[in-house]
Each structure stands twice: as C-alpha cells, then as structure tokens.
Amino acid sequence: GSGRAGLAGLLNESPELDAVFCSSDLLALGVLTEASARGLAVPGRLAVMGFGDLAFAGDTHPALSTVRIDGTVIGQRAAGFIVDRAEGRGVGEKVVDLGFQIVERAST
C-alpha cells in the first residue's frame, strides 16, 4: 500500500526519522506494516499518528494513535452550505472550525 511505500521512501531519504503523521488511518496502517517488516519498534523507534479514528484504529498492533473528527457534523454543515447556495443565500463563513480530538493509543 501507499503507507508502506511512503515510509520506505521517507526512511531512504531520512533514516533518522522518528515520527510520522499520516493524513488517514489507512495510510498509518501501511506505515505500521512497513515498520514491522523492517523490525522498527513502534513507538520506541518510530511514532505513528493517523487521522480519522476509523473503526480498526484501536485494533492495530500497536493500537493506532489518531485524530478524531466528527464526520456527522462535517456532513451536516456541508449539506447546509449546499442548500444555502442552491436557494441563493450566501454561504457566509468560508472556514469553519469543527474541532478535533487526539486519541492517544500505543503507537505514539
């Protein structure tokens, strides 16, 4: 997967790399897989952080630390923007802070 290839490339360029933040939990799963294949201890040698808190994140080995966002709220706000625009109303805010939560597990 692309997480595995991504970590391989990063380590080839920067062998001293000690932490990786991934834009998705799926990429982070690939990073964990590549780290294991290379015998790199996570989190001892390499810390790994995902994004999304997908259902499998707590079941990886080690359990994946991740950033949790509220997808339901994001969908509701996006739908509201679409309806407003379709009905000729301005969208208003262009940047909306919906917050996040760091879920610290065993990979960091």
Short description:
It contains three helices and four strands. The protein is of the alpha/beta class. The protein has one domain: Response regulator (Rossmann fold), CATH 3.40.50.
Verbal overview:
Strands 1-2-3-4 form a 4-stranded mixed β-sheet, with helices on one face. Helix 2 (25-37) links the parallel strand 1 (19-21) and strand 2 (47-51). The chain has helices at residues 2-13, 25-37, 71-86; strands at residues 19-21, 47-51, 65-68, 101-103. With 108 residues, it is an alpha/beta fold. The two termini are 21 Å apart.
State the shape: elongated
Query: Roughly how many Å is the radius of gyration?
Result: 18 Å
Low-confidence stretches: none
Number of strands: 4
Largest sheet: 4 strands, mixed
Instruction: Return the CATH architecture.
Output: 3-Layer(aba) Sandwich
Task: Report strand order across the widest sheet.
Answer: 1-2-3-4
Q: Helical percent range?
A: 25-40%
In whole angstroms, the N-to-C terminal distance is 21 Å
Beta-strand portion reads 5-15%
**CATH superfamily caption:** Response regulator
Order of helices and strands: HEHEEHE
User: What's the overall average pLDDT, rounded?
Assistant: 95
Question: What is the number of helical segments per DSSP (H or I, 4+ residues)?
Answer: 3
